[in-house]
Design brief:
The structure is a single chain. The protein has 2 domains: about 200 residues, D-Maltodextrin-Binding Protein, domain 2 (3-Layer(aba) Sandwich); about 100 residues, D-Maltodextrin-Binding Protein, domain 2 (3-Layer(aba) Sandwich), CATH 3.40.190. It is built from 12 helices and 14 strands. The protein has a 5-stranded mixed beta sheet, with helices on both faces. Helix 3 crosses helix 9, helix 3 packs antiparallel against helix 11 and helix 9 crosses helix 11. About 5% of the residues have low confidence.
Length: about 350
């Protein structure tokens, strides 16, 4: 083999095994000492500020996990509340580093907006909320009904597509802001309200004058895979966000909980060792240190803990795991292999 070929192969191997550079987005985050996270203006269970001004929710915990992984501190996050109309512009312009805001991953958004969705953090679907006084038990009984819906969402298009396919005429009543749309519904402006089923559970439980007077109809009319997005053009940052979310999911499957991170560092299981940075160093491929995943879980817990605390059994919403259960527990949640 010629000396040139040997040098070429050696250079390729060096490039393959060398630690990755973390990318310009992470450089900026480290420089300012803070992750800028775009969240909703207030959807309990996903992203909302509590009475003390502390942000809580599933989407919030995703950003806190990423901050812990890359900055070593889950509290080093600047929360940027964004409406449906503002969210993509804020990400595109660099106002936020990540959009973690109950946003549906769709072809047009993924291909045409200059962004990348990183992973699905909640499998949802669109439904309908009605007053029991209407005696409506199916969405197919909403002929000529006025239906409140928020603009700038996949919900608005799904509403039109569903009823057109059913040959049923309805009258969408469109609002720019979430708060205005639910206020109009409960004031009697519309006979039904439509959005993601997870949000309907929150609206019924927390916004209805009397939750028992309202019912979520059985139809789920769409697939709504919700997840964070980042700007295109920084593959290193894309990888960090993607793999941090996968780590939260993988931690649940491996039995790594928030309270057991340190104790499990003595585990003989190679998968657990690799995850916690005791064995193989996965962090160098991301431009991070070997304990990045351990810090993320220690900060917010694994996916199951995040789910239960914010939207599941330990939350006011008490949503079932359903599709969001692990793949080996009846759901479709599935981490890419951390190896």
């Amino acid at each position: 083999m010629s000396r040139i070929h040997v040098l070429t192969i050696a250079a390729a191997l060096a490039a393959f095994t060398a630690p990755a550079h973390a990318g310009k987005t992470l450089d900026g985050i480290k420089s300012r000492g803070q992750l800028a996270c775009g969240v909703s203006t207030g959807v309990i269970g996903f992203s909302a500020a509590d009475s003390q001004g502390q942000w809580r929710g599933l989407d919030v915990d995703v950003c806190r996990a990423i901050a812990a992984a890359v900055l070593g501190d889950a509290n080093k996050v600047r929360w940027v509340p964004l409406s449906s109309q503002q969210r993509f512009t804020a990400l595109q312009s660099g106002e936020v580093d990540i959009l973690s805001r109950n946003t549906t991953w769709s072809l047009t958004r993924d291909a045409a907006l200059g962004l990348h969705f990183t992973a699905v953090t909640y499998y949802d679907g669109q439904g309908f909320l009605v007053s029991k006084k209407t005696r409506v038990t199916s969405a197919k009984q909403l002929k000529n009904a006025e239906i409140c819906v928020q603009s700038g969402t996949t919900t608005e298009k799904n509403l039109s597509d569903y009823f057109r396919a059913q040959g049923i005429k309805v009258k969408p009543v469109v609002f720019d802001k979430f708060e205005a749309s639910i206020k109009a519904f409960f004031s009697g402006r519309c006979q039904a309200y439509t959005t993601d089923a997870s949000a309907l559970a929150f609206i019924r439980a927390k916004e209805a004058p009397n939750p028992d007077d309202y019912v979520v109809l059985p139809e789920i009319i769409s697939k709504e895979p919700l997840g964070p997005a980042v700007r295109r053009g920084d593959d290193e940052w894309f990888a960090i966000v993607k793999w941090t979310i996968n780590a939260l999911i993988e931690a649940e499957e491996l039995g790594i909980t928030q309270g057991k991170v340190d104790a499990l560092k003595g585990s003989a299981d190679p998968s657990v060792q690799r995850f916690l940075g005791v064995g193989e160093d996965l962090g160098k491929s991301l431009g991070l240190d070997r304990e990045w995943a351990a810090r993320a879980v220690k900060a917010v817990g694994n996916y199951g803990e995040i789910f239960n605390r914010n939207v599941g059994a330990d939350s006011p919403l008490k949503l079932p795991r359903g599709l969001n259960a692990q793949w080996n527990k009846g759901g479709i949640l599935y981490s890419l292999p951390l190896r």
